[in-house]
Amino acid sequence: MIDIILRFLIGGVVVSAFSLISDLLKPKTFAGLFGAAPSVALATLALTVMKEGKQYASIEARSMILGAMALLVYAAAVSYILLRFRKPALPVVLVLLLLWMGVATGLWYVMVS
Amino acid sequence: MIVTISTSGLKRAKWWEFLLRFVVGGFVTVGAGLIAKRFGPGFGGLFLAFPAILASSVTLVEKHERERKQQKGMRGVIRSRQAASADAAGAAMGSIALIAFSACVWKLLPGHSLGWVIGGATLLWTAICAIVWYCWKQNFLRH
């Protein structure tokens, strides 16, 4: 339980810090870079290494490559749809989470099979 | 275009928006850990790049830009979605750097100290972000 609370607090602080940096920067495309900052990884890596070891964290990082590829597809799709079809942002970002999930798990399936 | 620091974005933000980001960040971090524990690090690692932060930031950028335009008497719908689109385009560029960050951690972590690997990978992420964004901006300005 302490581990979960610690992860929650560290994750919240690191993500908030990157969001704060993003809020301070202009233009929007540069600030947007921080939407793909390794915030969750930075928050968890040290805890994971301490608890599970380096090999475990290394395997997580290998899969994170696939997650980041899916993030590239997701972010490009969000950007395109907002610019081309001018739909409201909230439904677009929520529906496209399914795209991220599909691409990430698809790539993972290809890797393991 | 030169990168500038502006506090106007912070002034527009409400307290609950900071709380929302903190809670989303906390939940995603805990969720990634629990998924890794349940399904193994191979599957759980995918969620270290889950786009929850991007999703919340794009939504907030749209909201702030619309409010800014409405204060000037405009509807601001199209401009706000263009701003949100630009934010997501930046994240697409950042995710290229995130791929490099992950690869660096994957390859170097087993044989090196955690501090050096995290520091090096973060520097690599920053450098690639700057290079990709600069190249994109140069190309963008030419067209």
Write structural notes for this entry.
- The complex is a heterodimer of chains A (113) and B (143).
- With 113 residues, chain A is an all-alpha fold.
- Chain A is built from six helices and one strand; from the N terminus they run αβααααα.
- Chain A folds into two domains: 1-52; 63-113.
- Chain A has helices at residues 2-24, 28-32, 39-52, 54-84, 89-95, 97-112, and one strand at 25-26.
- In chain A, helix 3 runs antiparallel to helix 4 (54-84).
- Chain B has 143 residues and is mainly α.
- Chain B has helices at 8-12, 15-39, 41-44, 52-71, 77-108, 114-142; one strand at residues 4-5.
- In chain B, helix 2 runs antiparallel to helix 4 (52-71), helix 4 (52-71) packs antiparallel against helix 5 (77-108) and helix 5 runs antiparallel to helix 6 (114-142).
- Chains A and B meet through helix 1, strand 1, helix 2, helix 3 and helix 4 of A and strand 1, helix 2, helix 3, helix 4 and helix 5 of B.
